[in-house]
Specification:
The structure is a homodimer of 414-residue chains.
Chain A lengths: L6 H13 L10 H4 L10 E3 L2 E3 L5 E4 L14 H11 L11 H12 L5 E5 L2 H16 L3 E5 L25 E4 L4 H10 L4 E6 L17 H12 L2 E5 L22 E4 L10 E5 L4 H6 L11 H15 L2 H22 L4 E4 L6 E4 L7 H12 L2 E2 L14 H21 L4
Parallel strand pairs in A: 3-13, 5-6, 5-7, 7-8, 8-9
Antiparallel strand pairs in A: 1-2, 2-3, 4-10, 9-10, 11-12
């Protein structure tokens, strides 16, 4: 099949390179990872479909890297937004709906007594560490090695530009290494302010890894025994696995939970949720941001939660994700390709075993999918949403079958 | 005059205290600083007018702490927003208008070659330091003591929850102390990555202080001589004093400029602008955020800049600010009260000399204004916008005259 025309997108990219360092920044843009095969810009988004500046359409399994959970321009969310934006948005003071959303989240979430809102996942992550530190009078935080918790100095995985001093109070242990965590806690007895984990391991450029049986329980036990706060960074997985917070899937109740991405279906909002033991510390830690009062994202969040509850969105995404994963697995087998499907069905990811971490076949596969109208990222986990239909998934599977053949064609064995 | 009914707002505040630590957070809410005199929530905003949950109306001279610059729900901005939000907002990739806004800002701003967008002023400030550090291979940053550059660890003025290690690479000098800065630079010769300043000193709980003649020039000279980047934190003042960046008012061209607040009239957007010498470093420093691709705030920004240019917004705000400041000064004199008006006319502030920093009279004054439908903050600088009319300013001055009498009534001299 012929390549899609990306000329308008490419022209924009040439213009962008003059006025934006590198032309694009941030998340590993597939247009940089697989040059020539992906657009660099998106012009239109509706439901689970994207249109690029050249008019090419894509069924989207990246979902804006997670925020889109009930469909781009979901009618119920947009109706709530439309109502709120005629009232107020950024202001001198919050709008009444901030109270409503805090009550809603507290009501939804076992063990949680309060909520504070911000704009980025990074905001929420850094602030939760500050709360734990203020509460305990300690500075050390334990995190899982090579885990993404945002771009602030302590968390920025690239380090460039961030002094080592900003990471001085972070110690780490390996994912699923319960004994390693126990040892670390013993070694730093009386010094740990917090243990922060994601509900499952979902790093870019690697397979996702679910928690081993009992691992999150150990995190909970060790945190409690150490007098440290257990923080679950649910920024990426939140509201795709369990409405009560993803850790509840494994029966674990954290002291703080971080949300962002899907919380407001793409409207900029993040949140720290915590329990009463941390309330005084949360009062004392100074946090603010110019747009933290914004009422429109809060209205979007309330409508997103309504929609997910009314439509049993969690079960729906699991169902669709299972169909997608099983279909990919079957079609890969038919093509004679060994793939690894990882992560929970609603946040799936697929890699090629023969790539051994190079992501070469993944790039070819993603490019072949893009050329046929399916948007998957070569090196970052995917997402399904309630806006996808069985027909969308089946179309993607047909495209995947062709893309597997392209992979076979380019990586023929001797 | 009788107190306004704030019962609905107060009920909401009681609910809020159960699910939000302290009920409100962040910027010093006047409802906490002057209990019983201010609403805690805002329900409606249009032009320069706010309505609280009890239906009380206020002419707003806080402008959402700065973002509102061309009026809440400015029709031209909202029209652009309406168009864009039917296309796309948060997505896998940016929309074409990101290139347009980057080109626009580069074109507007002397000495600037590129732009990168984020969500908070804090994001922009921290990231600019990282760029300077990556560019110079140095870690030390010089800032003006007790200056607000956001809430991240290095900048958080309250310190609580943030380890001293996060402030380890910051050294400081006094505002307007050119010799002090020269000494500091000599002391740390070969070690300074950046010098960061605001265009004028605008700290809460103090009078604003304009730069002394030559002070910003000295910052420029010292930065250049030290091989350090000069960063102007224009988050609060940007697009109220000079469309080319506030430092241009004093003829100074920084290496990086930080914008947020007024950049998109209340839609969440911040930006780091920099020159070619820092472009490679900007490419290397990893920065991202889930909502950084949002196209709606960018559309709002383009329309806000259009509006400011078409209506000579800068001159208009200066004119209105001068009328406001002169009126306040005259009426205070008539009331026999010694006040200090500080800051540029478009970002004015007033304190009572006999308060000697206690802000007691300021609280009484602000409360009396609120009771009469004018929203000024007791301890934080004010803002005017293009949405204010002469009649709005004159109404505020009449209210101020009454509020001065209230102050006189409560602080009668022996």
């Amino acid at each position: 099949m012929s390549e899609r025309d990306l000329s308008k997108s490419n022209e924009l990219f040439q213009r962008a390179k003059r006025v934006i360092p590198g032309g694009v920044y941030g998340h590993q843009s597939p247009s940089l990872l697989v040059p020539g095969s992906f657009p660099t810009f998106i012009s239109k988004a509706e439901g689970c479909r994207l249109t690029d500046p050249d008019g090419n359409e894509y069924i989207d399994f990246l979902c804006a890297y997670g925020p889109m959970v009930v469909g781009y321009r979901n009618p119920q969310v947009e109706e709530a937004v439309e109502r709120q934006r005629h009232q107020c948005d950024s202001g001198n003071l919050p709008a009444p709906n901030m109270v409503e959303l805090a009550e809603r989240l507290v009501g939804l979430t076992p063990g949680i007594d309060w909520t504070v809102f911000a704009k980025n996942g990074s905001d929420a992550a850094s602030w939760s560490l500050a709360i734990a530190r203020a509460a305990t009078g300690r500075e050390l935080v334990a995190m899982v090695e090579r885990t993404y918790h945002g771009v602030h100095g302590w968390a920025n995985m690239m380090h460039e530009g961030f002094p080592a001093a900003e990471r001085a109070n972070i110690v780490s242990f390996a994912w699923n290494d319960a004994e390693g965590l126990e040892r670390l806690a013993d070694e730093h007895a009386g010094k740990l302010a917090a243990v922060i984990v994601t509900p499952f391991k979902h790093e870019a450029f690697g397979d996702s890894v679910m928690p081993a049986p009992g691992f999150l329980d150990t995190v909970r036990t060790v945190a409690t025994r150490s007098g440290a706060a257990m923080i679950v960074d649910d920024v990426r997985a939140g509201f795709r696995l369990d409405m009560r917070g993803s850790a509840q899937l494994w029966g674990v109740t954290p002291d703080m939970i971080l949300y962002s991405k899907a919380l407001a279906n793409g409207y900029p909002l993040s949140a720290v949720l915590g329990n009463d033991g941390l309330r005084d510390a949360a009062k004392r830690v100074f946090v603010t941001g110019t747009f933290f009062t914004q009422a429109v994202p809060i209205a979007a969040s309330l409508a997103t939660l309504d929609y997910l509850e009314a439509n049993d969105g969690i079960a729906r995404m699991r169902e669709l994700g299972n169909r997608f994963c099983k279909g990919l697995s079957d079609r890969a087998e038919e093509a004679g390709l060994a793939v690894t499907l990882s992560g929970p069905p609603a946040i799936p990811f697929m890699t090629f075993q023969k790539d051994e971490g190079s992501f070469e076949r993944s790039r070819v596969f993603a490019a072949a999918c893009a050329a046929r109208g399916v948007f998957v990222h070569p090196c970052h986990n995917w997402f399904v949403s309630t806006a996808h239909s069985e027909a969308d998934v089946d179309f993607a599977l047909d495209v995947a079958a062709e893309a597997f053949e392209t992979v076979n064609g380019q990586f023929e064995e001797a």
